[in-house]
Design a protein that fits this description.
Radius of gyration: 19 Å
Number of strands: 6
Strand content: 5-15%
Distance between the termini: 17 Å
Helix content: 40-55%
C-alpha cells in the first residue's frame, strides 16, 4: 500500500465509517446483488408507454420534445468547450478554498452561482449521491412517488441533474413537470438554503462497489470519447478514487459521505439511505423516502414502485432513454458493480 493510500485511509474521519450501519452496508454488498423478491403480481405500470400514447406535460411538451431541447443545449455546450480540457477544477465557492475536478461539459459554476443567488426552489426534492451510488434508481423511484404512478418514463436522469444545468434551465426544459432534482455535489458546494428549504435524500454505497462501477463507467466514457478521456487502468482509477478531493471527480468519496452523514444528524431535511439496505428491504426504505418527501404513497403504490424499479425491470424500461446521451457515454448506466473486484485484481 502506498504512502498516499495509507494517509488517505487512516487520515479520514473514522467515527462514522466504523458504525454499525456502515458495517451492514459492506457486509450486504458481498451477498447477492439481486433485488429482494417481491410480489409475483403482474404490474402493468412497470412497462414503458407506447409513443402513440405519450401524454403532454403541464408545459404542453411531449417527452420527445423535451429531450430534443435538452440534447440541443448539450450539443451547444459541447461546441463551446471544444478547445477546453475534458476535466477542470471547480472554482472555489464563497467561504471555502476547497475544490474538486468536474467534467467540462458540466455547468457546475453556473449552477452554483444560481443556487447561491436564488437557491433551489422551496420544497424541492433532491436525490444526492456520490458517483455510481444509485442515482438513477432512486431518482426514478422518487419521481414515481411524487407522481403517484409507478411508470418509468423516457426521460434520462441528466435532464434533472443540477451539474448539467441550473434549476431555472431545467425547469424551462421540463416545464412544471420537475418533481425531483439529482446531484453529485459535495455538501460544502451547496448553499445552506439547498438543504434547509428542500428535502434531500442522500444515498451512500459500499466504496468497493462504487470504485468498481466507476471504473467501468470511465471505460464507457473512454470508448465514446477516447481523445478526451484516455483509457485508465484499474490501478490508475483506484489511485484517483483514494486520492485527495482536488484530484478526484466530485471529490473524495470519504469526505463526500462524511459531510452528509454528519449533517443529517442535526438536519431533518437530509435523509440518509444505504444503497445495500434499499436493495435488501426496498419496501421499508421506500416508505422512509416517501415519508421524508411527503408524497403520501399508499402501501399498494409502494409495492408497485418496488416492482417497477427492480434492477432488471428498470434497466429494460430505461434503455431507450439512455440512447439520448449515447454521444457522451458508451454502455449502460444500469450495471451491477458488486462482485467484480476480484476479476479486476486478477
Amino acid at each position: 500500500m502506498s504512502e498516499l493510500k495509507s494517509s488517505v485511509i487512516f487520515g479520514r474521519r473514522l467515527v462514522d465509517f466504523s458504525s454499525q450501519k456502515f458495517q451492514m452496508g459492506c457486509a450486504a454488498s458481498d451477498t447477492s446483488h439481486s433485488q429482494t423478491k417481491t410480489s409475483s403480481k403482474p404490474v402493468a405500470n412497470g412497462v414503458h408507454k407506447d409513443k402513440a400514447e405519450e401524454p403532454k406535460t403541464d408545459g404542453g411538451k411531449t417527452e420527445d420534445e423535451r429531450v430534443a431541447v435538452f440534447k440541443q443545449l448539450l450539443m451547444e455546450k459541447l461546441m463551446s468547450i471544444a478547445n477546453e480540457p475534458p476535466m477542470k477544477p471547480l472554482q472555489p465557492v464563497e467561504g471555502t478554498e476547497r475544490t474538486i475536478l468536474v467534467p467540462s461539459i458540466f455547468n457546475c459554476q453556473e449552477t452554483l452561482a444560481e443556487l447561491n443567488d436564488t437557491g433551489i426552489p422551496t420544497n424541492s426534492n433532491v436525490v444526492v449521491t456520490y458517483l455510481k451510488s444509485g442515482t438513477h434508481w432512486v431518482w426514478e423511484l422518487m419521481k414515481m412517488l411524487k407522481k403517484k404512478q409507478a411508470v418509468a418514463d423516457g426521460i434520462p436522469k441528466e435532464m434533472g441533474h443540477l451539474e448539467f444545468f441550473p434549476p431555472s434551465v431545467l425547469r424551462k426544459i421540463n416545464g412544471s413537470d420537475m418533481p425531483v432534482y439529482a446531484t453529485h455535489f459535495p455538501l460544502w458546494c451547496l448553499p445552506k438554503s439547498a438543504y434547509t428549504n428542500s428535502q434531500l435524500v442522500y444515498v451512500y454505497r459500499n466504496p468497493k462497489d462504487v470504485c468498481v462501477s466507476l471504473f467501468y463507467h470511465f471505460q464507457g466514457m473512454s470508448e465514446a470519447n477516447p481523445k478526451d478521456f484516455p483509457p485508465l487502468s484499474f490501478d490508475q482509477l483506484f489511485e484517483m478514487f483514494m486520492g485527495p478531493s482536488e484530484a478526484n471527480l466530485m471529490g473524495s468519496w470519504f469526505d463526500h459521505v462524511a459531510d452528509y452523514w454528519d449533517n443529517h444528524r442535526t438536519n431533518a431535511n437530509i435523509l440518509c439511505v444505504m444503497y445495500e439496505q434499499l436493495k435488501k428491504d426496498p419496501v421499508t426504505e421506500i416508505k422512509r423516502i416517501d415519508k421524508h418527501i411527503g408524497s403520501g404513497a399508499t402501501d399498494e403504490l409502494v409495492q408497485e414502485v418496488v416492482d417497477a424499479t427492480a434492477f432488471k425491470t428498470l434497466k429494460k424500461t430505461k434503455e431507450s432513454s439512455e440512447q439520448h446521451i449515447a454521444f457522451l457515454f458508451k454502455g449502460t448506466m444500469y450495471r451491477r458493480g458488486s462482485g467484480r473486484l476480484e476479476k479486476l485484481l486478477q
